[in-house]
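stage 2 :: seqdesign
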């Protein structure tokens, strides 16, 4: 039976650590870090994600701001707001919640974000610095996965890591982090990969971020594999009040007996994305305040 990688517990631990750091900062007469979130439209999941991020800020003692726009806001108006946030000395970091309406270019919006305040780690500058020691901010979800591996003492050095999914938000930066700082041998698979199971069966560590429920079945993994399931999918479930259940990209019930470690969905990688976001916000704050990486160093 696999050891369950409890992202909810680890994220709570991180929040407690950051809350203590905020108390120390305030006791020195400094202001707390400030995170802003930009929300466009009324997409249900987006509202939930932003609400959870704001709640995390309140838990650790950050100041937070929520900036809302209607779904028909123009791209020019959104860029104007981003430029304002870039210049606001009271804002340490901010996010623009995705997805955006179709009439707004994600690439153009991202290009306007100051990489020093890009706590999601999505800007081209931050993406390009992923494998550098002096990077700005790592993409939140891959950063969260690396933190889980570290806190569960799961070694990546010399291991064969297979990443399924090549998005610029998860798959590609995940592969770079595992191969660079992680010192692993990495194979990146995706929708066009032929004979996917041939690669997943070789994985010592398997990271799946596709958005397709139960894509990975028990016959596609080897005994003792470490499974990191980034997928979160809504599937119909009449037993639930909501009418749906959340499932990952791997068949959890079938794979758990074969795995050495495995993340659940929900409660695995999801909470770590938010934890990474507030960790990046603290790093951005310290850079702006001219503080050392750690107050204890």
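stage 2 :: out
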């Amino acid at each position: 039976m696999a050891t369950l990688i409890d992202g909810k517990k680890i994220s709570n631990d991180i929040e407690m650590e950051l809350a203590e750091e905020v108390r120390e900062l305030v006791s020195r007469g400094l202001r707390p870090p400030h995170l802003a979130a930009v929300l466009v439209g009324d997409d249900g999941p987006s509202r939930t994600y932003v609400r959870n991020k704001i709640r995390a800020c309140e838990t650790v003692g950050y100041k937070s701001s929520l900036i809302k726009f209607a779904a028909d806001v123009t791209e020019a108006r959104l860029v104007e707001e981003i430029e304002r946030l870039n210049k606001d000395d009271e804002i340490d970091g901010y996010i623009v919640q995705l997805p955006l309406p179709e009439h707004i270019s994600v690439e153009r919006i991202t290009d306007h974000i100051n990489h020093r305040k890009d706590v999601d780690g999505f800007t081209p500058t931050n993406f390009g610095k992923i494998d550098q020691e002096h990077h700005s901010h790592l993409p939140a979800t891959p950063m969260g996965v690396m933190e889980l591996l570290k806190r569960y003492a799961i070694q990546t050095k010399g291991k064969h890591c297979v990443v399924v999914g090549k998005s610029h938000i998860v798959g590609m930066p995940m592969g770079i982090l595992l191969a660079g700082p992680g010192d692993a041998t990495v194979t990146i698979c995706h929708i066009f990969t032929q004979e996917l199971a041939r690669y997943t069966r070789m994985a010592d560590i398997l990271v799946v971020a596709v958005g397709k429920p139960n894509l990975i079945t028990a016959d596609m993994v080897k005994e003792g594999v470490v499974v990191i399931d980034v997928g979160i999918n809504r599937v119909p479930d009449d037993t639930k009040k909501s009418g749906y259940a959340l499932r990952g990209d791997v068949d959890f019930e079938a794979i758990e007996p074969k795995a050495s470690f495995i993340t659940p969905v929900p409660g695995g990688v999801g909470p770590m994305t938010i934890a990474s976001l507030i960790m990046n916000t603290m790093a951005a704050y310290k850079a702006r305040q001219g503080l050392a990486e750690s107050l204890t160093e």
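stage 3 :: structure notes
- The chain has a mean pLDDT of 94.
- The CA atoms of residues 120 and 272 lie 12 Å apart.
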